[in-house]
Structures are given as structure tokens and as C-alpha cells.
UniProtKB/TrEMBL annotation:
<keyword id="KW-0560">Oxidoreductase</keyword>
<feature type="domain" description="Nitroreductase">
    <location>
        <begin position="8"/>
        <end position="61"/>
    </location>
</feature>
<dbReference type="InterPro" id="IPR029479">
    <property type="entry name" value="Nitroreductase"/>
</dbReference>
<dbReference type="InterPro" id="IPR000415">
    <property type="entry name" value="Nitroreductase-like"/>
</dbReference>
<comment type="similarity">
    <text>Belongs to the nitroreductase family.</text>
</comment>
<keyword id="KW-0288">FMN</keyword>
<feature type="domain" description="Nitroreductase">
    <location>
        <begin position="67"/>
        <end position="144"/>
    </location>
</feature>
<dbReference type="Pfam" id="PF00881">
    <property type="entry name" value="Nitroreductase"/>
</dbReference>
<keyword id="KW-0285">Flavoprotein</keyword>
<protein>
    <submittedName>
        <fullName>Nitroreductase</fullName>
    </submittedName>
</protein>
Amino acid sequence: MNFLELAKERYSVRMFSDRPIEEEKLNLILEAARVAPTACNNQPQRIYVIQSPEAREKVKKCTRYSFDAPCILLVCYNEEESWYGVDNKLGCIDATIIGTHMMMEATELGIGSVWVGSFKADIVKTEFNLPQHIIPVALFPIGYPSEKARPAAQHTKRKELKETVSYL
């Protein structure tokens, strides 16, 4: 499958089976993050793999969007390693890039994912005892989709290029 086909196939999975993700597949997803481009190649990303029942319960204190996934990837960046652009640190953008890489690799492997940006970062930092300089950006519940999982109704509704692109 080419990249555009893969991008069109990927959707936000919000219903997971309890089938665990094989270690080799999880490692491929993490490798996709490792090779993702970051500003000045500083690689400030920090990824926490949340799999134990106790750790997954902690996630539920931070957000209602864990979807009972068997694995949740907490993506953060190290503020001390993030490249500073013109007027902001780019760690959040770097974390976004690696998150996208992980979601696409997961899709290629038949593993579903959903991007969760709605969470209480202060509770994440407390529950997972993160140092002050580690900044949470997103949670990625991942796992094999449930047989009932389907793309949201609006998934294939896309604006025409002329509505989102301007040539200058």
C-alpha cells in the first residue's frame, strides 16, 4: 500500500479488543517515532509506554478518553532539549511529528490508534511522577480494533484543496 492509501485508511479507533500488542510490533511503532524528524535533530521526545492495569487506571484520572486500550503511549518532550525557534520552543511540534509517525506505523501493522489531546497535564505529571522539564503533549491509546470499531461518520468528509490551499 502506498502512503496516500495508508493515510486514507487510518482512522481514530475508539473501541479496542483486549488482544495485547506483540512486543515486536510495539517496537516498530516506537522505532517510527525514533526516526521521525525533529528540530535540529535534538530528539527531545520522551515516550512512556503505559501497559500495566495500574498505570492504565492512572490515565483514567487524567482523561475520560482512554477507551480501555491495552496500551497507551504518553508522548512528551524534554523542555531542556527542545530547540528554541524564533519565539517558541519546538518540542510540541516535534512531539506532534513523532506521534503522527507512530499512528501511521500502527495502521500499517493493523493496530488502531487515537490521538488524545484532551487531558489534564498537571495530573499526568503527578500520577506518572514526571520531572518539571518533561512536558506532556498527547496520549495515544493503541491496540487491535474491536470488531465493532468503525471510522466516525465524518472521517471521509474532506474539504476540497481549493478551500485549504492558497498559491502565493
